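Office hours follow-up: a student asked to see two folded examples consecutively, so here they are.
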Amino acid sequence: MRSMASSSSSRGIAAIVGVGPNLGRSIARKFAHEGYTVAILARDLGRLSRFADEIAREEKAQVFAIRIDCSDSRSIREAFEGVLSLGFVEVLVYNAYQPVSWHPSAFTAIRVESFEKSLAVSTVGALLCSQQVLPSMVDRGKGTILFTGCSASLTGIAGYSELCCGKFALRALSQCLAKEFEPLGVHVAHVIIDGVVGPPRVASTCLRSLPSSGEQQQGGGDGWMDPDALAQTYWYLHIQDKNAWAHEIDLHSSGN
């Protein structure tokens, strides 16, 4: 983790939870480009630190790498002690997910421990991260919370009960928070990524057998979703006029 000295940016902090090589990194880069101090959080601190160095160098920005395990309430609490020490968290993007197999799982073979962990990462983690930043957002009457969903947020898929249940619950959480906190000045939105997210502008021949979920997929080229383009939409949601806030947006490639 980088030094937790307070941010010198005139803007608040953008905290991106669930940063891998594709979507999370692109969102972090976009907010850094727009002048935010960025905190990026994920389980793999070594890889995360490399991303932080890369974005800081490219965007001439302050970027802090902080380890988090979104299935562990203590880890979330400790991670956000570091995030909150940087200053006011104006933006929270929750992009974490629990990896699932590319192959459908027989319902009777699902282990309770695995099912519970998927729910913990998809939804309980989102709840706990939101609880860390909402009090300050409400005090200031401003802030943005964005949740990453996928096609499994809308439709049950045979063989993917763990993914679907977690993503269904995350969508419900987003709607509940929007109803409660938007009158207090906090914009809450759910972003449905209906396609396969890959590295920016890089071709791939990976199969498209599983609905995309945050950093879950690899790919690029026609029909694959460029994370840099998706990151533009996250930024757009943040800067929307409060008289026309979107609660949910569905993104898909023209090749789908």
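And the second, which I mentioned at the end of office hours:
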Amino acid sequence: MMKGVQLVTVLVFALACSLSSAYDPSPLQDFCVAINDSTSSYAVFVNGKFCKDPKLATADDFFFSGLNTPRDTSTPLGSNVTLLNVDKILGLNTLGISLARIDFAPYGLNPPHIHPRATEILVVLEGTLYVGFVTSNPENRLFTKVLNAGDVFVFPIGLIHFQFNPGHTNAVAFAGLSSQNPGLITIANAVFGSNPPINPDVLAKAFQLDRNVVNYLQKKF
């Protein structure tokens, strides 16, 4: 009986260790630059991307220019996210990291969303941001902070979080994410703008809303 318990303990520990490295596992080579041409005889499929022969890699595979340029914030939400993931910098493949620039107009919002595959660390370069995240059930505890230029805040992987510019001037922030492809689920878009739409009766019950309100929200998204 004791041996059986020990075996189960070892198996559970092994499973936990494997799950702990389930996100962007460490590469077994210096780099594995992604290549869009899967028919190339030099391509090898690794971590969701085909990789070019390392001997054919160049400095441009690890380079992006123009992140210093302000982005257009004349959007419905008053914000603009420029994400540099593996699709923009091919050399990020297998390296487990990406970067984003976020521009905010006055009262601009990066709405509540999650990154299913990444923790995010954000630094404010200009202006002021009101940021926060909410923990999982059952507590649903809200952590918030007002950030000024030079301040840093961390959003744990998979938790709903947001950034809002409460000021009268523009704001700019940069964020590092712990995945080459962090993913994005914007809560409102996913719930009210799914394709095909979620049955309004389901959403009316879940949010304790009138069905007409749900229909209105689904038309918005």
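Two things to take away from it. Residues 5-22 have pLDDT under 50 and may be disordered. The radius of gyration is 21 Å.
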